[in-house]
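Extended Data, panel c. Modelled sequence:
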Amino acid sequence: MNAALREQVRLRAQGRCESCQLPDAVTELPHEADHIRAVKHDGPTEMANLAWACARCNDFKGSDVSAYVPATDKLVRLFNPRMDVWSEHFVWDGALLRGKSDMARATIALLKINSDRRVIYRQLLMDDGLFEFLAP
């Protein structure tokens, strides 16, 4: 992927992970232009198939496109920022991200967005005024 395309993806996302909203300015590991449909599944490297993702969300997602809703056997597709409106599926409860839909709950679980470590880090960023809630 060329630098210009990567920068377009970053700018569209306003420099925030499109899943957990972590700003790229406050991370040690760089955010990445993630293929929503993985290259190994013939996903194209083009704007319509790319999302800005923090290293943690991208690592946990891998090439997955679906996950199980916690405490169920229900398999659902993951949140797709090119198809879904973030604020229709997610809501902040302090530093915890809550899902309004099965898709959001499955995404939060698979990406481990509410792991203790990530919640503590978000809370510290919030306390320092470095993490604000957005509804993209």
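The mean pLDDT is 95. This feature is highlighted in the accompanying rendering.
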